[in-house]
Design brief:
Elements lengths: L5 H9 L17 E2 L10 H17 L3 H4 L7 H13 L6 E3 L3 H12 L7 E5 L4 H13 L4 H4 E4 L9 H6 L5 E7 L11 H10 L3 E5 L11 H4 L3 E4 L14 E4 L44 H17 L1 H23 L7 E2 L11 E5 L3 H10 L2 E2 L1 E3 L3 E5 L7 H17 L14
Parallel strand pairs: 1-11, 3-4, 3-5, 5-6, 6-7
Antiparallel strand pairs: 2-8, 7-8, 9-10, 10-13, 12-13
Helix pairs in contact: 1-14, 2-11, 4-11, 5-6, 12-14
This protein binds pyridoxal-5'-phosphate (PLP).
């Protein structure tokens, strides 16, 4: 019988691994923060790194490009090397650059050369920006997205059936872009299996790993992905609007970037200022513009913390904490009048770092929870997402969150809020 007592939650915290990392983060006073899958909290190391870069700018001006520590000119590649250790890639296959959407544009325009095979495959549960980018890439090639973009349907509006994805891999499909973890339900796809099946059919495949890097280990090279993108502001705790990452498998280093820009030029020759574009033969060749150095500094500090904690340890703890939360919801919130349903797959190998609770009125339950300083979020139509950061959340916070949700329903506090949605949820 699962123990739903508060004392058990506290006991779990006492034996909790990685608990020493919580002090390295700024936890807003009195707040239970369960939004590490949207914007991770600020870590002290990120803050001190930004201060260092500000000092370099103050004292060196433009000389920071070569005189900074690390030199700003090479910072994108340096962060690529660090992040490559998180995702099982070679240093030169990863670079910190742009934003997730821009990186999707870059990689799809680099890979998608429709001739006989013209279709791109994605899915109806994908984060919308990925779909917008794919549509515009198809249009740029003079084709009709209504015909060329195949969207895999979902039987339950939560998850994707991997066998169905494979069935749709026809000889007309040129390229596939899928999420690693679905942003709403938290389903984790088997990237290795899907990549193998795509390659059997001569289809290129990449993943948007925004909801998995920093909380789930990856082995991009072993799985043989063609490309990947991910942001750094979620489980990586890189800060609001922090620069994103891209991965390109080294067997594609000969491909010319679809979107050329001077930061992708052969590094040693960038300042020769020649008009003929020559790309660096690495992930760095896919950079476009001058990077944000304070943004890099934030990501750098946050990466140090992740690497120090170790991604396998983080995943182990994330699995334990998400399982605990699901058991608690089952035990306390599943029956009337609570009626919360867990939309996240139960199988530990099929889920990432957050738990999706469903109920028809989660929009206002989220507002009531926010009012109690429990920071969760709402995703339409009916999902309350609870994301656990193994580096700063505790079991006791999870217990308190479930208790708050119970009290909200008991007191009908959520009925005080309108169902009209605000601009940012
Ligand atoms: C899966 C996924 N992809 C892309 C994005 C958007 O990324 P960006 O704003 O960096 O382009 C998000 C934002 O939350 C996301 O969740």
């Amino acid at each position: 019988m699962f123990d739903i007592s508060e004392s058990y939650a506290k006991e779990l915290d006492r034996s909790m691994e990685l608990s020493e990392y919580r002090d390295g983060f700024y936890i807003p006073e009195g707040v239970i923060y369960l939004l590490g899958n949207s914007l991770g909290l600020m870590c002290k190391k990120a803050e001190s790194n930004v201060e260092k870069v500000m000092m370099e700018w103050r004292e060196m001006g433009i000389k920071g490009w070569l005189g900074g520590d690390p030199p700003w000119f090479y910072y994108a590649e340096k962060l690529g090397e660090k992040a490559s250790r998180l995702v099982g890639a070679k240093a030169e296959e990863v670079v910190c650059t742009g934003t997730t959407t821009v990186n999707i544009h870059q990689l799809v325009s680099t890979f998608y050369k429709p001739k006989k095979k013209t279709k791109i495959m994605a899915d109806v549960l994908n984060f919308p920006t990925d779909i917008y980018a794919l549509r515009s890439q198809i249009e740029i090639k003079g084709l009709d997205p209504e015909k060329e973009l195949l969207l895999i349907e979902s039987d339950d509006s939560r998850t994707l059936d991997e066998e169905k994805i494979v069935e749709m891999m026809s000889e007309k499909v040129n390229l596939i872009l899928l999420p690693s973890v679905l942003y709403r339900s938290g389903q984790l796809l088997d990237m290795e299996y899907l990549t193998k099946e795509a390659h059997k059919r001569d289809i290129l495949i990449g993943f948007d790993c925004s909801h998995s890097v920093g909380v789930v280990p990856h082995q991009f090279d072993d799985w043989n992905l063609d490309f990947a993108v991910w942001c750094s502001y979620k489980y990586m705790n890189g800060g609001p609007g922090s620069p994103a990452f891209l991965y390109i498998n080294e067997r594609h280093f000969d491909k010319e970037p679809g979107l050329a820009g001077w930061f992708g030029y052969v590094k040693k020759k960038q300042f020769d200022m020649l008009l003929d574009f020559r790309s660096e033969k690495s992930a760095g060749g896919l950079q476009i513009s001058s990077p944000s150095i304070p943004g890099f500094a934030m990501v750098d500090g946050a990466l140090d913390v992740l690497l120090d904690a170790g991604i396998d340890n983080i995943r182990k703890k994330s699995e334990a904490m998400t399982s605990y939360l699901m058991d608690l919801v089952d035990g306390v919130l599943s029956e009337p009048p609570y009626n919360f349903h867990i939309g996240t797959p139960r199988d530990i190998n099929k889920r990432g770092g957050h738990v999706a609770l469903e109920r028809e009125d989660t929009y206002r339950i989220n507002l009531a929870s926010y009012n109690r300083s429990v920071v969760t979020d709402f995703r339409p139509p009916n999902v309350l997402r609870l994301a656990i950061s193994p580096l700063y959340n505790t079991y006791h916070e999870l217990w308190q969150t479930v208790d708050h949700l119970k009290e909200i329903i008991d007191s009908e506090e959520h009925l005080e809020y309108s169902m009209d949605r605000a601009a940012v949820t």
